[in-house]
Amino acid sequence: MPDTTNSTVKDQEATTLDAVAAVTPAQRDAPRSLWNDAWHDLRRKPIFYVSSLLILFLIVISLWPSLMTSTSPYACDLSKSQLGPTGGHPFGFDTQGCDVYARTIYGARASVAVGIFTTLGATILGSVLGGLAGFYGGWWDAILSRISDIFFGIPILLGGVVFLSVIKGGSITTVVAFMVLLGWPQIARIARGAVITAKQQDYVQAARALGASSGRMLLRHIAPNALAPVIVVATIALGTYISLEATLSFLGVGLKPPTVSWGIDISQASTMIRNAPHMLLWPAGALSITVLAFIMLGDAVRDALDPKLR
Amino acid sequence: MGRYVIRRLLQMVPVFLGTTLLIFVMVYALGDPVAAMFGDRAPDPATAAMIRHQLYLDHPLWQQYLHYMGQILQGDFGTAFDGQPVTQLMSSAFPVTLRLTLVAFAIEGIFGIALGLLAGMRRGRFADTGVLGFTLLMISIPVFVTGYLLQYFVAVKWQLANPAVADGAPFGDLILPGIVLAGVSLAYVARLTRTSVAENSRADYIRTAVAKGMPRRRVVTTHLLRNSLIPVVTFLGTDIGNLMAGAVVTERIFNVKGVGFQLYQGILRQNPPTVVGFVTVLVLVFLAANLLVDLLYAVLDPRIRYA
C-alpha cells in the first residue's frame, strides 16, 4: 500500500512538473493582476460556490417563480386559514388561507430585486460622486463630505421609517429609490478614500508626467485600482439592504400588498406565532438564508480582494 | 484639547442643522399634517386654515423650519396627537430606551469583545471558526426574526423570561430585548476585535513583551487589547445611535414603551411634532456619541494628539 500511494504522489508531482514546464516562459512571467489573484483565490473556496449557487437559485426563482410552484400566491381560501401542512401544500396556509409555500417562493422576487437594484444604484451614484470628490478635491469635495456627514447623522432605519411613511409608495421602485438615497454616502466615502490613495501612487504620477488627461488617468489608472474596496463594501451591503427592506416592510412602511414580500408575511404572522408558528418560520427562514448567501459571498470576495486580512 | 473640542462642536452645527432640515422637509413638505388629523374625512376649509395658522403651517417652509428651531431652543417641541406636550412623551420614553440601550450596549461590548479576543488569539482553530460562523448567522438573521424566535422559545415555550416588558422597564425584563437589540452589533464587534487582535498579536511590541517575560495576562490586557480596541471603540460609539434607532423594531416586539414606540405612534398617527422632535433628539445623541469617541481615542492611544 505505501508503495502505491508513494507512486501516485510521485506521478502527481511529475504531472505538475510537466505542466509547469509546458507553460511558456512568457505565460509564467505575466504578472497576475489583483483580479486574477482574487479569482484564483475565490475558486478554491467552497463557501464561494455554496453562496453563488444559492444566489443563482434565488435569481432564477425570482425571475420565474412558476418553475417552483403552480399555486398562485393570491389564490387564498379563508376556510383553510392557519392550517398546517397538507398534501400539495408543504408549508401550510396563512391567516388569509393563502399557500405559504407559494408566498415564500414568490417573496424572493421583492427581496432580490430590492437588494440588487439598490446596490447598483448606490454603487454607481456613490462611486461617481465619491470618486470625483477624491480626484478633484477642493470645494466639490468639501460640499460632498458635508452632505454625506448629514446623511450619516440619520441612522438609516430611522430615516427609512420617517421618509417612507410620508411617501406612502409601497412599490419596489419607491423603496429602491429611497434606499439608494440613504445608501450612497457610505459607498461614496469608501470610493473617495480609495481614489485618494490611488491618486498618490507613482504610476498615476508617471501617467500625469507623460501628459495623460484627467479623464484618462481616472478611467485607465485610478478606477481599476480603486474599485476593489468599493466592490467589497457593495457586496456586503447587498445583504444588509435586503435585511433593511424586510425590516421596513415588517414595520409597515416598506413594500405593501399586493407585492408579495417576506417582511410583510412575517409581520402578519408575528401576532399568530403561538397558534401557527409555521406561518412565521418559512418566510423568516427564506429571508435569513437569502441574506446569509449574499453576506457569505461578500465575505469571500473581501477575503479574496483584501490580502491584508489573510 | 480644548480647542479641538470647540472645533468639533462647531463642525457639528452644520451637520445638526442639515440633518434636522432634511427630516423637517421630509415630514412637513411631503406630508400633509392637517389632512392627517382628519383621517379619511375631508376637513372644513376654514377649520383647516385655522389649524394651519395655529401650527405656523401657513408660512414658507424655511420660515417654518426657523420657527421650529427657535421653539426647540426654548424647550418647546410642540404637542403630540393626544394633546400632551412632546417633551412630556420624551421624558417618559427616553429613560426607558436609555435603559434598553445600556443593557444592549453592555451585552454587545462584553460578549462582542470577549468572542473577538477568543477568535483572534486562536486564529484558524475551532474557536475561531465557531465564532465566525456564529457572527455570520447573527448578521444574516434580521432583528425582527431573532426577536420573535427568542420571544417564542425563551419566553413563551420555556418560560425563562417575560415575553413583554413591564411598565417602568425593570432591568430583569430588559435582558431578552437587550440581547435581540445587541445581536447584529455584537457580531460586528466580535469580527472587528478578531481582525484587530489577530493583526496586533504579530506586532513587534507584543513579541518584546512576551520576550521580556511579562505574564501572558498582562500582555493581553495592557498591550494587545488596548491597541486592538481603537477601531472597536469607534464602532461602539457610532453604534449608540443605531441601537436607539433599532429600538423601533425591538420595542415593538417586546412592547416596550420607549422612544421607538412613541416614534412609531407618531408616524402611524402622522403627528409631525412627535416624529421631528424625537428624531432631532436622536440625531443629537448620535452626534454627541461620535464626539465622545473621538475624545476617547486620546485616552486609548496617546500617539493621537489633538492640535
Give an account of the 3D structure.
The complex is a heterodimer of chains A (310) and B (307). Chain A is mostly helical and 310 residues long. Chain A has one domain: MetI-like fold. Helix content of chain A is 74%, strand content 0%. In chain A, helix 5 packs parallel to helix 8, helix 7 runs antiparallel to helix 8 and helix 10 packs antiparallel against helix 12. The longest helix of chain A has 37 residues. Chain A is elongated. Chain B is built from twelve helices and no strands. Chain B is mainly α and 307 residues long. The longest helix of chain B has 38 residues. The mean pLDDT of chain B is 81. In chain B, helix 5 runs antiparallel to helix 6 and helix 5 runs parallel beside helix 12. At the A-B interface, helix 6, helix 7, helix 10, helix 11 and helix 12 of A face helix 1, helix 6, helix 7, helix 10 and helix 11 of B.
What is the oligomeric state here?
Answer: heterodimer
Number of domain modules of chain A: 1
CATH class wording of chain A: Mainly Alpha
Number of helices of chain B: 12
Q: What's the rounded overall pLDDT mean of chain B?
A: 81
Q: Give the helices and strands of chain B as they follow along the chain.
A: HHHHHHHHHHHH
List segments of chain B where confidence is low: pLDDT < 50 over at least 5 consecutive residues. none
Q: Give the count of helical stretches of chain A.
A: 12
Q: By helix and strand content of chain B, what is the structural category? A: mainly alpha
SSE order of chain A, as H and E?
HHHHHHHHHHHH
